[in-house]
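Field notebook, page 406. I keep forgetting to write these up properly, so this time I am using the form the group agreed on. The chain and the ligand, iron/sulfur cluster, are recorded exactly as supplied. Prediction of the bound pose follows.
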Amino acid sequence: MGDSPSSASSAAPAFSEFRSHAPGHWPEVSRDDWNDPKWQLKNRISGLGALEARMTLTDEERAGVLLAGNKLAMSITPHFFNLIDVDDPACPIRRQVIPRLEEAWSAPEELSDPCGEDSHMPVPGLVHRYPDRVLFLVTDRCASYCRYCTRSRVVSGVGEQHLETQWEAAFRYLERTPQVRDVLLSGGDPLLFSDSKLERILSRLHAIPHIEFVRIGSRIPIFLPQRITPALCAMLRKYHPLFISIHSNHPKELTSEVRDALGRLADAGVPLGNQSVLLRGVNDDAETQKILVQKLLRCRARPYYLYQCDLIAGSSHLRTPVSTGVDIIEALRGHTTGYAIPQFVIDGPGGGGKIPINPDYVVKREPGRITLRNFQQEQFEYPDPTPVPASEVERLKERASEPVSQ
Ligand code: SF4
């Protein structure tokens, strides 16, 4: 069905440089407008006409845009749209945000709620699956929409379900549930809120004594780096410990604007981790991943998770075999800084939580020892500890009791 690249082969070393792509398709726009997040949001590409005014769509994309309206809306910020190579139907940026025909077909293994979140909500909008932490779905809106979104059933407001977060009930639940020590704000994208609305949420959580820290999951630094203003950073730094998980999939997304935005967050003391989704034709080759993870460290963001794409309805054209992710980790481990290597995980379908998947470095297990291999296929034996013999303990005790000569 149309172009269907089996791997992303376009990660030219050029993507390792930080570039600005502004103003690109918007040469007439003033610098002030371009840097204004409200202007970026107001001028998002969200319809067929605006899209076709700037690029020629493939037949699969055109049909995808027409069919997306009752599933997951299309919306692309001008900043992110400028990263698309309009002459390349296989552009890895394009595949992430422009709907395709294949989205309208669900494979038998696919699910509308692949992580089983809806069945773990004590209050609408609050997912409490693990004893000590909750996922707080605070909005269903994002700056742009990813075609593989795990929550496409609710995100963007046009799908089969609607998110109806019950704010007061959620806060009261958190206040009376002392085992919750960690709250992840997600959605949708929480950084789409105004500073004052976000601060109301953070301050309310901060006032709950047993909540030790808050995390925010956001793709805003990638889709809309203009939103990471000094005022936002000054507000966030009042609510430490506060972590932000960003979401970048391809090194081209790490523009000079994104690097600077992440630098502002890091300067505000916010530890940054990156979560990538392994996507066919986007980042399913080791070279692309290596450039991405190394560039993330230069942006002060630690590669954290590489997700196997969830079994989202209409995602089979973007999913890869699990072996692809294992091969990528194998190609990274030992070949770049350990800090740069994310943990490859599968979210257990239906609500199993994150399950780590690693290349197998254990060659053999025997009583008393294990045989391992390294990244160069060399083998090493690692023995279990030998207990100190009782006779040796006695001998050493005697020696210790001897007078110390001056
Ligand atoms: S930014 Fe996150 S929540 Fe929003 S569409 Fe993308 S994956 Fe989904």
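OBSERVATIONS:
- The chain is about 30% helix and 15% strand.
- The first strand starts at residue 126 and ends at 130.
FOLLOW-UP: compare against the apo run.
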